[in-house]
Structures are given as C-alpha cells and as structure tokens.
Amino acid sequence: MVRKAIAVCGIVQGVGFRPYIHRLAVERQLVGRVCNTAAGVSIEVQGPSAAVDDFLARLPAEAPPLARITEISVHDVPCNCDQDFQILTTHRDTPVSTLIAPDVAVCEECLHEMFDPGNRRYCYPFINCTNCGPRFTIVRDIPYDRPFTTMAVFRMCPACRAEYEDPRDRRFHAQPNACWACGPRVELWDGEGKHIAGADPVGETILRLQQGAVAAIKGLGGFHLACDAANVDAVRTLRERKRRVEKPFAVMAPDLDAVEQFCVVDATARQLLRSVQRPIVLLPRRDNAAIAHEVAPFNRYLGAFLPYTPLHYLLFAGAPFAGLVMTSGNLSEEPICIANHEAVRRLRQLADVFLVHNRDILLRCDDSVVRLSGARPRQLRRSRGFVPVPVFLRDEVPPVLAVGGELKNTICLTKGRHAFLSQHIGDLENAESYSFFKEAVEHLRRILEIEPAAIAYDLHPNYFSTRWALEQVGLRQIGVQHHHAHIASCMAENHLGGRVIGFALDGTGYGTDGHIWGGEVLLADYGGFERAAHLAYVPLPGGEAAIREPWRMAVSYLVHHFGCDFVRDLPLVANVAEKTLNVLFRMMEQGINSPLTSSCGRLFDAVAALAGLRREVNYEAQAAIELEMAIPSYYDESAYPFDLLDDGEGWIIDTRAVFEGILRDLSREVTAGDISRRFHNGLVEVLCAIAVRLRERSALERVCLSGGTFQNAYLFERVCHRLRDAGFQVFTHGEVPAGDGGLSLGQALVAVQRLTSP
Question: Which CATH architecture has domain 534-682?
C-alpha cells in the first residue's frame, strides 16, 4: 500500500476536474481525497502500488475537455485509515496561482437536453454543465466557487442542488448550474427599458427581427446588436444608428451548413468555427450569397461564427434566418455594454427592443476574431473563449504589469511562467474606454493576486495608458519602444531567446528619435535593439487628418519624390481646392503639423489612394484592407522595385521607384488590382533582400514578423515563403495578435529583462 500527494496546476477548476479525479480513483478502488486550492487541485490517493501508478499515468491523459494541465508534482506521504475517496470543501491557504477557465460554448449534451420536451430544462436559455458555459465573465475571486461568482444570488432548487453535490453527475460543482425553477430569466424590454408583459421574450424577439428590427441581446460578455443579415434595410438601419459607415459586421449563422452557403469553408475553418471558443472567423465570401452586401462592403471576406450560448440556439430554432448580424453592443469605439440599464441608456437610439437577463456580467468581453493565414489560425482580436488562458513562457519571470498601447489595447500581467493578457479593451480614445482599461487592470490583478514589481508602458507621451502608468507610485516604471515590444512579443510567444532579425510593420509607433515609426527592421533581443533599416521618412500632412484621408499621404510621397509642381496636374488632386493644396504644400515644407513618419501603414494608404481605391477611410486600416482585397486571384510575380540606400548605420528603404512604376501603370490604365499586387510583391522582395544582407552582416538566421501590417494575408504568406526558401527560420504570431493587441506581452518581457539584468 502506498499514498501519494499530488498537486495539479493549470486550468483545473470549474471544468469538472474533481469529479473526474473521483471517478478515476473509485474505478481503481483507491481511497483518499481531492479539493480545490488557490494553487489548483490537491489530491491524495492511497492503495496498491500498481493501481496508484495506473491512476497517475491516466490522470493527465483522460482529463476533462476544458482542463489544461500545466504542472503535476507527486510525493510520498504516510498511509492512513481512509475508507473511501472524498471530494472536500475548497480551502484557501496559499497565494493564488491556479488558472481560470475562459467562457466557452454550450456543449452538445446540454443542447440535447435543452431541445428535449421531456427534460426539465427544455428551452432553458441558461443551461450549462462543467463542460460548458460562463466562467471568466462571472467570476469575482479565486477559488472558482459559486459564492465568488455572480451566480451567488441564485439559490439552487433541490433538484439543481442534488446535481451540484453528486460527484457522478455532469453538473457536479458546475458553478452556474440552474434551471427554470431557480436560475436567471430573460425578459424583453422596450426602448425605454420597460418590461413588455405577456410576451414570450425569445419568440417576440424573433418576430421583431423578422420584421426588420434591431435587437440588443445580452450574451456572455456583453450585449450584441442584432438584425437579420439578409435584410438590406435592417443592415443599413443598424449602420446608420451605430455610426459605422463601412466597417464590416460579423454574421452568426445557425450551423456550419449555413456558413457554407455564404462562405468558402475548408477543413481548418470548420474545426475553428466549431471549437469551444467559437471565434469570429474571417472567410472568403461566396458570390450571390443570401447575406446582404452591406454587411461587409468592399470586402471579399465575411466574419462568420456559430452560436455559443443556449439563447443564441433558441433564436435560430424559432426562425430560418440565413444569419444574424451580431455586432458589439456599443456606439463605434465605445466599450461593449454589459448591464441591462446601462444598455438601455447607451443603446436606446440604436435598438428597438432589448432581450435582457438577470445574470450579471462582471467583466466585458468581446467576441474573438481570427483569420486563417499560413495554414493556421491567427488572432486578430483575442478575447472571449481565449482569455484568461495565459501565454506560457519559456522561463519563470518576476511579476510585471504591461499596459499596452493606445489602439486595440490589452494589458498583460506576468507570474511564474505565465503571461496573462486581458481581453480586448479597444482604442483608448474616450472616457468610457479609459474606465474599462482601469477596470480590467484592477480585476486581473485581483483575481490573479499579482502585485507587480514594475510597470511597462509605451514611449508615446500622450497615450492614455502611458499617462496612467506614469501616475502609479511605488512601482518601477519602464518605457518600451513600440516596435521593440512587437518583436519581443513574437519572441515570447515562440519561446525564443538571444537576438533575432525583426520586421515590425504597422501604422504608428513612437520612435526613439521623436518621429513616427512603422516600417522598421530591427536587430533585437529582450534587452534592446538596433534599428537596421526603415522606410524613408515622409511628412504626415495634417497629422491625424492624413490618417483619415489617405490622399494626403499620396500627395506627401509624390511631393517628397517629384516636387509640388508635379503633383498639381495629377488626377489625384483634381477635386482638391487650390487653396487647400497650397496649404498642404506649405505645411510639409515648413514642418507645421506634419510630423515625419516611416509608417508602413501610411505607405499602404498612399498606394491605395493613388490607385483610386480609397481617398478617405471610415475605420482603421480600411485603405490597406481594400488594397489587399483588390489583388486579382491569377498568378503574377511582377513587382515594383524598392531601393536600399546605405546611410552609414543601416539602410533606408526608398520608394521613388515604386511610385514611378505606379504612375507609369496608371498612364497605361493598368487596373488597381494589378497595381496592388505589384506593390505587395515589391515589398516582399525588399524585405527578403534586407534579411539576406543582415544575415551576411550579423550571421542571424531567425526572423520574427510582427505588427498589424502582417495581418495582411497576401503579404504575410509570401514573406514567410520567400524567407524560408532563403534558409531563414521564420517565427510568427498565432496565439496573440500581430497587431497592437499583442503589444503588452512584448512590453512585459522587455521589462522583465531590464528588471533581472545585472
């Protein structure tokens, strides 16, 4: 007879782990006990040596589907007189180090019960078990037990309590467990927040959606604004009310077959769509699909996803919708609404009715967005379903808080070998978003019980996140250059040490020389970087106005290369008043409100405007996205040449020959699609040429690709292919976004290096 004490760390609470351990032990006729702790799960098993060894071997192999074991430690303890195997009450006697499970889609077993007329949970919109349902968005504290969740206010009925306390039941310690008799309820409210009496809330919502209404629907991490995706007028109405002129909406479809009616879906996409995370997946759109063109204008892709809450399934069960637009319940650029009366106050001008419920959402959590590129999923927005699963690090690190950037903000907290990124917070450009940022920092620190030793921030002095970081007292403050953080983020995700060649391409990042960077090639490690090459500087005429109006960037590049007089006669400025054009020229000549930039994003803007695709944008990166969408499907390797100019310290990537080629093609009436492809191909060629030169100079063969520009699948896939053909090891993002959503991870690892360096 032997007795073993086992400590299991990872995502092992709220996922059916203790009943799993109970069944495993009882099957082998072992005695002992299991309980949750602040560190994870503690187990003691006693019995014949062979049976205990078999238990230990099978423990990780047969764990519940939502469990993620990161560490198992085992040691011998004395045998005692236990007569059975017990599940003990949770105790908390150590600092918190367990991992919280994310919110996941309702499981097939629960769906089967929900649509079974003989089941007591028939059509119950909050059915769940230990294999599915809400987690992160309802937890107040650790350990993950019902009293520490927003379900604490619902007292379980005897039937639910019996399930909850039975280790053999699928709902044993399912913290959100509930039913019609004791759990949350849905209600339908009008635009004034008044209960619409007498109506079946779900049925009436379906009827309103069929009639073209916009409904605000409360989900797992906040409200959606929903309408019939096949109803052109309804989609236009939602756009007008939400002030979202052209930015694509996501479409929720009832099932995989429905998605395949309007999108091209390969095997990888099918698996991703049906995963427990249920992200929005960007997929090629089919011609003549039933979904209204207005859902995603000027875009060959649609963001599609499947239902993930019981309520979603009930909505689709009641009507044959091809799909429902399900977009964040907010005005553009504001945080998603989570509370019922908050939703009515903020969304009453947007929604006709409100389908609400009385289970509180503790923390906002938008839908995650992924794109398949290079044969694997790439995160564009990492949020519901993935947070708070940590990024697992190569080494143990001290606790650090990193506060990210201004756009697509996330925060990051490190602890041991874990880096916890927050859900997508968004752009910190209004008071509501800034409040959400501070709320996310406080919540993550509290539930993880992390007291950081340092705080990392972006060098841009006017970022809200930077200002907040510099206001904190008692912490070491570490500024991290934007593009260095991008490369460090890619290194951290890929468990790299040492020095790498880093391509950091994006729209905006504050440079160490005070200029706006964005087309950067770095030789970098966590400790520092050398700027080895960059796009040539050009003025950003009008500052933020040049980002909203890409034609200004086209003018800037053309003036930079060919002079003001050359530009005056171009069709590009035919509709620009001469006075406006002269003011623009003077601004650039005198450096007035025209900061210098090496931004790759602004180069894409200039090419898109010059090619006639987009003079003004309605959302971030619209011009670059439409430039990629314009590329024809047929094969052609022709490319505009970029020149590399040696400045004594590195190379300047000069674009004169690119614009000469574009102007020549425009005079020959070459299509915008061919211009786009030649531009993309030329950028691929020059990046690979730089990598080869740097390898000759530094002997480095590892290349990291980061920054929002690499969310362009055409560019990304061709750069990867060419670099690998040239013998480089190429490292990319998959677990965190390549854009600014992954910035905080890199900031944290740079700060860790500075903290621990002699």
Answer: Orthogonal Bundle (1.10)
The CATH class that applies to domain 186-357 reads alpha beta
10 Å Cβ neighbour count for 76? 9
DSSP letter for 708, please: G
pLDDT of residue 98: 62
0.85 surpassed by pTM: yes
Indicate the helix (H) or strand (E) that contains 498: none
Domain ranges, ordered by start, for the chain: 2-87, 100-184, 186-357, 369-494+739-756, 534-682
Task: Give the separation between CA 259 and CA 251, rounded to whole angstroms.
Answer: 9
What residues of the chain score a pLDDT lower than 70?
90-98
pLDDT at 305: 98
Tell me, yes or no, if the two domains 2-87 and 369-494+739-756 fold the same way.
no
Q: Which of 734, 737, 679 is nearest to 708 (CA)?
A: 737
Q: What is the pLDDT of residues 197-212, one digit of tens each?
A: 887 999 999 999 999 9
What confidence tens digit (pLDDT) does each residue in 261-300 have?
Answer: 999 999 999 999 999 999 999 999 998 889 999 999 999 9
Radius of gyration of the chain from its Cα atoms, rounded to whole angstroms? 28
- Where residue 222 falls (left for φ over 0; alpha for ψ -120 to 50; beta otherwise) is left
* DSSP letters spanning 142-210: SS--GGGBGGGGSPPPHHHHHHHH-TTSTTTT-TT---TTTS--EEEE-TTS-B-TTS-HHHHHHHHHH
3-class secondary structure per residue, 10-52:
EECCCCCHHHHHHHHHHHCCCEEEEEEECCEEEEEEEECHHHH
Query: Helices (DSSP H) in 290-401: which residue ranges?
Result: 310-317, 340-347
- How much is the pLDDT for 653? 98
User: How many residues does the structure list for the chain?
Assistant: 758
* CATH of segment(s) 2-87: 3.30.70.100
